[in-house]
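step=encode ok
step=design start
structure_in=
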């Protein structure tokens, strides 16, 4: 038995499992990410030459694999949103981006600085890495496939989907802030970098990402649905792999122009969707991206499980555990709740939005990217230990909570009015989260 034989075997089993397991775990209190994570741990413990990835030594590989997974997921999230863009219609999104995200970065940075005694740059990096809601692992709480009408979307699911689509790009300025701080002052503190960072990394790169995303999305939308030449009107051919072309094109142009590609991809997807909102081609594109995303997620979580089995948490201290637990059970719920004060959502919906800030593949990408720019005081292992623990905790906690609530929501939607269904389903989900927090807080 050779190494390549085992790789082919694992890839085959993983691909088949990614196709079968979603139907098996549907409506059960565990998720597909949980299964692949546990499978990665168990297979790594077998006496087989199973490949093990070390994100410190194999940083570049991890960075680019997670990068592809995130941008594919962003395209799928943007295509799935039925709601037209608007300041009022997207008010819950702006609240999460403008309040929850910066407060989460600050709170996590303070925890890392105070509890872990990390330098300011390293603490800020941890805050930036763990702040964004992950578009990949939030599948159970995202909006479903494109339906052509915004009235079918639950407000809580829309808020989480749109937040995940945008804050993965908006986390980059905070990552760059940590990199700039580390380069300017090492383990100390300096403010010389702030001016350039604000102009280039915040305003400049965000603007490029938004403009490129809107332009590419408008161009592709015209080509897909309105081009006079039938060869260019790809909506008539119903080929799903075009979604990958749109994803890579938007991302590549934005990155070449020194903008935020994550932001560009999501905006491109929303612009393509807006070009002909009710066309069935959106469902074809969405289904293809969802399949690719599922395969990449299975691979990455399998490898993460293997990494856990080979000692990923050996550098994790009890204080690091406390930081991870506080991020999931205190920081995100509290900052998410503050963002929804005086919003039009009901109390149960606010609890859902505040509670389901899932951490995942995006955090792994940001950490591997940042460590490629700066060693951050030689704390690579410690950073990976805390981030891996938090991601695993999020996979377990949110995986258990999401499926029963969504199942209950679907059952009620078949026999109740939409408003009643939403109210009861979200109340159930809110209660489930509060019960989970209570159980986790017991000594």
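sequence_out=
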């Amino acid at each position: 038995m050779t190494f390549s034989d085992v790789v082919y075997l694992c890839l085959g089993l993983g691909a088949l499992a990614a196709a079968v397991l979603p139907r098996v775990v549907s409506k059960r209190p565990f998720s597909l990410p949980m299964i692949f994570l546990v499978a990665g741990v168990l297979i790594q413990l077998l006496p087989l030459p199973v490949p093990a990835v070390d994100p410190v030594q194999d940083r570049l590989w991890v960075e680019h694999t997670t990068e592809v997974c995130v941008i594919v997921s962003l395209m799928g999230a943007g295509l799935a949103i039925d709601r037209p863009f608007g300041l009022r219609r997207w008010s819950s999104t702006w609240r999460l981006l403008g309040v929850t995200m910066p407060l989460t970065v600050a709170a996590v940075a303070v925890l890392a600085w105070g509890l872990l005694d990390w330098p300011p740059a390293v603490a800020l990096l941890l805050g930036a890495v763990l702040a964004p809601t992950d578009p990949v692992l939030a599948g159970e709480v995202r909006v479903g496939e494109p339906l052509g009408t915004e009235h079918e979307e639950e407000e809580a699911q829309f808020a989480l989907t749109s937040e995940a689509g945008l804050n993965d790009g908006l986390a980059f300025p905070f990552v760059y802030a940590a990199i700039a701080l580390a380069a300017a002052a090492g383990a100390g503190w300096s403010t010389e970098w702030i001016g350039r960072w604000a102009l280039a990394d915040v305003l400049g790169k965000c603007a490029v990402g938004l403009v490129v995303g809107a332009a590419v999305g408008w161009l592709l939308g015209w080509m897909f649905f309105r081009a006079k030449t039938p060869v260019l009107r790809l909506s008539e051919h119903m080929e799903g792999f075009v979604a990958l072309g749109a994803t890579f094109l938007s991302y590549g142009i934005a990155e070449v122009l020194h903008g935020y590609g994550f932001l560009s991809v999501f905006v491109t997807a929303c612009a393509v969707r807006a070009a002909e909102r009710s066309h069935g081609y959106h469902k074809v594109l969405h289904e293809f991206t969802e399949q690719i995303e599922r395969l990449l997620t299975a691979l990455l979580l399998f490898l993460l499980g293997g990494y856990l089995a080979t000692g990923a948490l050996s550098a994790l201290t009890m204080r690091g555990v406390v930081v991870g637990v506080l991020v999931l059970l205190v920081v995100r719920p509290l900052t998410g709740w503050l963002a929804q004060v005086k919003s039009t959502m009901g109390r149960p919906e606010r609890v859902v939005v505040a509670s389901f800030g899932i951490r995942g593949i995006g955090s792994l990408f940001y950490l591997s990217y940042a460590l490629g720019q700066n060693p951050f005081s030689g704390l690579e292992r410690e950073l990976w230990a805390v981030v891996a623990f938090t991601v695993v905790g999020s996979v377990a906690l949110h995986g258990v909570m999401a499926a029963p609530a969504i199942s209950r929501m679907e059952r009620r939607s078949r026999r109740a009015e939409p408003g009643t269904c939403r109210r009861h389903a979200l109340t159930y989900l809110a209660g489930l989260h509060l019960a989970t927090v209570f159980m986790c807080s017991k000594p």
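step=design ok
step=annotate ok -> The chain has one domain: 29-43+51-441.
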